[in-house]
Amino acid sequence: MPEAPFSRGAQHPPTAAPFATAAGPSGLLTSLAPLLAEWLPRQRWFAGKGRPVTGFALVCVTELLPWRADGGTPGLLHLLVRAQQPEPPGHRHGSGCGHRRGAAASDCYQLLLGARRTLPPPLAPALIGRPRGGPLDGQTVYEALFDPRLTTLLLERLRMPGRLGPLRFVREPSSTIPPVLPPRLMTAEQSNSSVVYGDTFILKLFRRVSPGTNPDLELPRALARTGCTRVPAPAAWFEAEPPAEGAGPRPEPFTLGVLQPFLAGSRDGWQLALDTLAARGDFTGAARALGHATAEVHLAMARGLPTSVLRRPQIEHLAAAMSERLDSAAAAVPALQPYRTALHGAYEDLAALGRAGRTWTAQRIHGDLHLGQALLTGSEGGGGRWSLIDFEGEPSRPLAERRRPQPPVRDIAGMLRSFDYAAAVGCHEHPQEWAGRTRAAYCAGYADASGTDPRDEPELLRAHETDKAVYEVLYEARHRPDWLSVPMTAIRRLAGLRT
Length: 499
Ligand SMILES: Nc1ncnc2c1ncn2[C@@H]1O[C@H](COP(=O)(O)OP(=O)(O)O)[C@@H](O)[C@H]1O
Ligand SMILES: O=P(O)(O)O[C@H]1O[C@H](CO)[C@@H](O[C@H]2O[C@H](CO)[C@@H](O)[C@H](O)[C@H]2O)[C@H](O)[C@H]1O
Fold this sequence. Notes:
The protein is α+β, with helices and mostly antiparallel strands. It is 35% helix and 20% strand. α1 (28-39) links the parallel β1 (6-8) and β2. The longest helix is centred in the last third of the chain and has 22 residues, at 458-479. Adenosine-5'-diphosphate binds next to β12.
């Protein structure tokens, strides 16, 4: 792929004036490639772990801040690059984020690179390397999100929207973003990267990106329009409109980052559950309130976005997709093999209900709901309030699939799986009992607010729980092999075997 145009930005925060564009610098990618090949696979958010990176292709590059050769000021480069890798073993269908050619795949990543002559000591952990040749020769290149000067500039871009080369910065007209908010990079384990500004806003930068609006922008905006206050409403965002690749059509814009209010002092449900377990406390009140909050968000999504009815063909298709995911996961994680037949049974039961004339409503859902996606502000005993975040869906699923209406029980199954995880990781002496009590409270809270008790549809719930546990097996095998036993215990239970 030829190097894409290199867009030069203004040195100061954007104005409404158009930005100048210069021709692309030759040798940029060539000089960065060996450094990125070493650095990228080490990042928590790199999705292609375990497979070599065989090359890079530039999708677009934008100079957000020009660097000075004498090292006077840092520079900031925004890149979208495709990392070329062989397909993973047992791969059936793509992530939807990348291109595929033969047995090769290439996911597109968003990179923000700082460039300075020398790195001050506090930025040492951000080092990527020193390119040889190319326009960055003589500079030190680093992860820009560690540098408060550069993350401040990003906020400025969002505060005063406009275009810069392929990038478009948008602010919700009703939102006010103050000019000076000290930034700090979040250090939590994440699938993306987030910067908190003065405890007022949080900017999430998507790392693996694909054409089309990210549901983590689309759904919170739609929920805000319905008046639902359970989800922080986007205040600003930015996207890229990269040039067409080859003779193909111009891709849809890629959502790159979303700024939303920061829920200061909040605690996430995962930490809260573990703390409660450690203190041998009761989590059922919190779970009930969380079920209530989940139902409120589901009702708002059903009001504000299209819904559909799942009849026999759609139910059979849903069951077949689950079966396919199971086969694909079992090819990648052999530990699943002994349980395949029994697990397929859950999907067959679902398909049988479809054949018998059962129908369900599908709607937009969260898509990857677990305790870590629920934030409690205030104390749960003293009138605390749950909010839900991170509507991106399961990161490894194709974007089109994540944006499709689905049965809301999919989210409920996700949260029920999370109670299982908490009981296992929190070392409860009777994990299944604790998880059972917590599940019952959550479902009861959901039923109170929605009038629908998920336990009344056992086949639907079991099929979704099984699908989620299979996803988790793959997720843990790739990201946290030490935790593989947690979803594997559930797999054995769901397959009807003793744990
Ligand atoms: N609006 C918010 N207010 C407070 N903390 C937040 C907010 N949004 C996200 N966080 C924190 O950032 C973490 C990562 O956010 P998340 O959207 O889940 O990113 P990722 O998709 O990278 O996992 C969350 O677990 C939470 O601790
Ligand atoms: O929060 P993300 O969008 O990055 O979601 C991914 O990572 C999650 C782990 O951080 C993973 O969740 C799994 O582990 C959780 C405990 O750490 C547990 O509460 C969840 O139930 C379990 O699924 C999630 O699956 C993955 O998509």
